[in-house]
Give the backbone structure.
Amino acid sequence: MEIPESMLAELAAWNGGSGIDLKSWIGCSGKFSLAVGYATVFWPEFTLFDGYILPMGFSETALRGFESRGDSRKAVEWVMNHLHLDSVQHLGCEDLSKDKLIALGQVLEQIYMAKLAWQFPDRTCIVEFHRPIDEDDLSDYQISFWQAAHERLT
């Protein structure tokens, strides 16, 4: 993974200016409780329900609400599975940046592809890392997916 440019100065300042690599930095800055929490983002739990692949603990009421609007199965599955990447940050976090969101989105895209192929080998899924038209709108970087079979039903 390429280190986001906005992190380079921070990593370089460690060890009296000698710097630190990303993996070692985690060992100095991270917490196990955060690692456990991040596991829900980096290896999410999915379930099969009514032909949809959905996050574990999804709201059936929300699902039925989207269906009742006449949305396609693809659109319903996309919205039920989407994650705004800025929601991964901590309250009061001041280091959110476009390059970090892009790095995170690219990694999550690969993780979701691997996880879905592993968990649902008989269902082809399309994973989308959505980048907003206005790249400075940090709240609109998203990751989501839908089943390819749902595209044919649209």
